[in-house]
From TrEMBL:
The keyword Transcription regulation applies. Pfam families: FCD (PF07729), GntR (PF00392). Keywords: DNA-binding, Transcription, Transcription regulation. Residues 7-74 form the HTH gntR-type domain. InterPro entries: GntR_C, TF_FadR/GntR_C, Tscrpt_reg_HTH_GntR, WH-like_DNA-bd_sf, WH_DNA-bd_sf. This is GntR family transcriptional regulator. The keyword Acyltransferase does not apply.
Amino acid sequence: MTTTRSMTRAEEIYKRLRADILNGRHEPGSRLRVEALKDSYGASSGVIREALPRLVGQGLATFAPQRGFRVVTVSPERLKELTEARVFIETHVVRESVAAGTIEWESDLLAAHHHLARTPYFSDDGALSERWLNAHARFHRVLLEGCPNRQLRDIATQLRDAAEVYRCWARTPAEHSHRDVAAEHQMICDRAIARDVPGVVEALSQHINITTQLLLNDYGRHEEKGKQDPGPPCGC
């Protein structure tokens, strides 16, 4: 029973740490000190030490002797590499998903899209809503769940999670622009349900690439502004 409780607690802390990294509460490159995390999350050192290696495995943190655990660093070059990898993997997985997805998968995808479309984009304080981020992640996860190859699905999820850290670059969310992100999600969903493989591949590729380009543009503006008015490196 004690082991089960410990595993459950470690899972809970892992999920909280993961969410806090993805939502920018731990800045890219920042140290993840066991003692500080223990106090912040109200967990034992053992539980924290169980959770941290899982973040490394997800590509959200790094570990080096003498330096310990850190949130993964960000750079334009790495974002470009992640985007190339995501498009390559996710378009393959979505092909398999659309081809093999069952009626139950269609129902789950429609439900995930409905939830995303009905979730407010901003929270009451004007920040990007955590509920929207969770609904967004769920939609993209369900989109690929028709693929029977779990290993490919896991790789796609890992790459997407690693790319989410780059939202910290943006002072304003990448989706909050002249872009109609709701229409993009609608198109992806419609083409998947219609079993339009070339169409959903095209829509998903554009969706990923547009987000990356907006983040890179925003990062470039911050870099230029930072030369004139140095400030925090991350707009979390």
